[in-house]
Please model this.
Amino acid sequence: MFGRLMIRALAAMCIAGAAATTALAKDEPTGVVTDPCIGQKSPEQMPGEQWVPYMFAHDFGQLCQYRAKNASLTTSQAAPQVVFMGDSITEGWEKLDPGYFTEGKVDRGISGQTTSQMLLRFRQDVIELHPQVVHILAGTNDVAGNTGPVTLSQVEGNIASMAELAKAHGIRVVLGSVPPAAKFPWRQGLVVVPTIKVLNSWIKEYAAHNGFTYADYFSAMANASGGMKEGLSSDGVHPTRDGYQLMEPLANASITQALEAPGTVH
Model:
C-alpha cells in the first residue's frame, strides 16, 4: 500500500517500457544468477518515483526481503509453528505489537503486495520454513489494483493456490477475511466495500469446503457501512495496535482450530 508514491510510480511505468529499461542498468546482474539479491537497491537508495518500477523489474515477488531471515531460521533448524503471510496489514502487525510474534509465530508480510506476488514467494517464505500452520491474510491490494486490474476469479485462484500448496506440504491453513475498509487513501474514488464483501464470502465458503479455518476479522472490525470501526485504524485500512489486539484472539482461536483439525501436522 504505497500511497501517492505508488500511484505516481505505476503511472510512470506505462511510458513504453522506459521504466524497465532504466531499472535494468548494465552493471547489474540479469538472468539466472547465484544470488539475485546482491546489490539490490532499497527504497531509500532510489530517488522519487523510481523504486516501484525498479522493484517490479528486479524482484516482482520481493523474495529478497526475507531471504536472509529465512536462511537464519532454516540454519538454526527452529521451524516456526505459524507463518503469517500477507501484505502491510500483516507486516504492520509485528511492528505495532512485536510481543505477539513470539512462541513460534513468524511474520512474512510485505507492504503493498497483491496475491500474485505472495504466491510467487510462498514457497520460500512459507513452505521452506516448515511451519505447522500458515495464516494467509490477503486481498486488500488486489481490490485496490496495486499491480494492475484483476478479476475476482484470479484473486481467488491465487489464494486457493497458496492454500493448496500448503496442504500438499502438510501445513494447516488459516484464511483470514479481508479487513473492512470504506475506501483506500491511495486509490481515491474506488468503491471497495461490495468487492471486499464478495471476496470474503468466497474465502469463507472455500475454507469450509476444503477443510481450512476461516478467521473472520471483517465481522469483528466493521461498522454498519462496511468500513473500519472508530479507533481500530489510523487511516481506515491499517489497524492500530488496538486493532491488532482485537484480531489476536481471533487469530489464536483459528490457529488452535487448525491444529486440532483431523489430519497430519509435521
